[in-house]
Amino acid sequence: MSTLTETAAPVATAQGPSLLAVRGVKTYYGNIIALKGVDLDVRQGEIVTMIGANGAGKSTLMMTIFGSPRAREGSISFDGRDITQMPTHEIARLRIAQSPEGRRVFPRMTVYENLQMGASINNFAHFEQDLERMFALFPRLKERISQRGGTLSGGEQQMLAIARALMARPRLLLLDEPSLGLAPLIVRQIFDAIRMLNREEGLTVFLVEQNAYHALKLAHRGYVMVNGVITMQGTGRELLADPQVRAAYLEGGHH
Amino acid sequence: MEVFLQQLINGLTLGSIYGLIAIGYTMVFGIIGMVNFAHGDVFMVGGFIALMCFMILTAWLGLAVIPSLLLVLLIGMILTGLWNWTIERVAYRPLRGSFRLAPLISAIGMSIFLANLVQVLQGPRNKPLPPMIQGNFVLMGSESTTVVLAYKQIVIVVVTVALLIAFWWLVQKTPLGRAQRACEQDRKMAALLGIDVDRTISITFVIGAALAAVAGVMYLMYYGVVSFSDGFVPGVKAFTAAVLGGIGSLPGAVLGGLLIGLIETMWSAYFTIDYKDVAAFSILAITLIFLPTGILGRPEVEKV
Asked: A46: distance to nearest CA of chain B, Å?
């Protein structure tokens, strides 16, 4: 556990090079600065989380990785390749998948069609096989298969958004607040699924959460973001034990 | 009764032409939320391309009517599609992300440009086409009135139905159609899934223009003339059809087209032919006031 005053720049450690490396990224909405120089690494096989309050810039970071909005300063690279200026759809084709803020399920497409959309990056190679995997992971989706996305409950939409992202067989999965507005039982189900995918398939996950307790328990490492700046980083366990983190994000009954 | 039946046949024929044009309005509106006012003129350009192809194929090369009709449809769809692709690249894409009125004004400009371009290149007079398909079935006959079904009407309806089936299949069952619907519902999410949104929009313009080109061929065959100003009135009627059916809805565009065709022909038969356009356009005003989402349109609110 270290605050930024102690270690100025995060560097890739002995664990290997970064799959995703964000360096000094600044993002603006018009003239308003949303990210004030963010540095962050996600290595192959890790679950990394970023916690922070509403409006801290977490979702902006998720979308900036995809170039929408684009970073005005700094650089983002994936697997050693600079993607800072790459068009959004080409970034997606590098097999970075996102379950975005607000889920963004296609409302007038069936669950099946939504999943097809996720698989289009792969040209539907191993589509049937992946579909079965998703049904095993989220049996509810199988029951709802021919229902339109817009008619699903919030939890079902969240499962669909994650499953749609997984259909791309991503090398990096970005999850933006998968627990938002969901019943605790469903949150547990979703987090269990993420843990299982990481352990059994080595899936690399970058997870943004307000639900700090669950996120930090799940993640190998974590970052804390406040007002567009990363203020702390460390292993999940270190951050969970940190008094400042406890005071700001954990006291008050997330668990 | 005979008059009614005859006008029913005429109305459905005319309506299928409007329906084909209306699809182009509704598709473009669905995907980028813009009314493409140049679409009627694209239809007119399609008519002129068809006229030239017909003349070359039948008068110069001496091809029979049916193969030349098929060739005209194919060439017309390709060339008109290319036109609309260029229009989108030149006049609309640079304005994407600008304020909402900008592409609309650009579209009106493009409409004026196309009409005037054709006027300069082809002259202001009506261009006639010798009748391609003559003859008809007499369905009912009495001494005073007959009900006839012209062969060209059969061709128009058959081609339209075949095209609509192919088009429906494209939108519902192919990856391209799915990408198109995805862009229509959430462009940003589509990009996150690796869909090239700009390319999908371009393809939408090409498909819309191809359907308008077919409508242009049918219009030319039906009336036997085309002029540079023919984009405007059929264009606005097709737009009315799209609004009546529910803009953004593909079945709505076809239904709206048929209804506008019927309203226009019935009005001509039972009231006065001079006011047929007034009747059709009144529908636009009435729909916008009393049924702004159209017959098959969806309400704006969606369950989240």
From this structure: 22
Question: Are the C-beta atoms of residues B119 and B100 closer than 8 Å to each other?
Answer: no
For Cα atoms A36, A58, A95, give the angle at the middle one, nearest 5 degrees.
110
Give the C-alpha separation, A67 to A72, whole Å: 10
Local structure of A201: helix, strand or coil: helix
Q: What is the pLDDT of residues B124-173, one digit of tens each?
A: 889 888 888 888 888 777 767 788 899 999 999 999 999 999 999 999 99
Strand order across the beta sheet in which A172-176 lies: A2-3, A229-235, A221-226, A47-52, A204-209, A172-176, A96-99
Domain positions in chain A = 2-94+171-250, 101-169
d(CA A199, CA B81): 51
CATH number assigned to the domain covering A2-94+171-250? 3.40.50.300
Partner residue facing A120 (CB), from B194, B298, B302: B194
How many residue contacts between A and B have a Cβ separation below 8 Å? 69
- C-alpha closest to that of A62 among A176, A216, A210: A176
Across the interface, which of A93, A100, A150 has its CB nearest the CB of B194?
A93
Q: Do A107 and B302 touch (CB under 8 A)?
A: yes
Contacts of B121 by beta carbon, 8 Å cutoff, 6+ apart = none
Give 3-state DSSP helix, strand, coil % of chain B, rounded to 5. Answer: 75, 5, 20
pTM of the model: 0.89
B chain contacts of residue A93, beta-carbon cutoff 8 Å: 194
* Contacting residues of B for A124, CB less than 8 Å apart: 175
Interstrand relation of A204-209 and A47-52 (parallel, antiparallel or unpaired): parallel
ipTM: 0.90
Lookup result for tokens 């697997």: A79
Q: Å from A248 to nearest chain B CA?
A: 30
Q: What is the CA radius of gyration of chain B?
A: 19
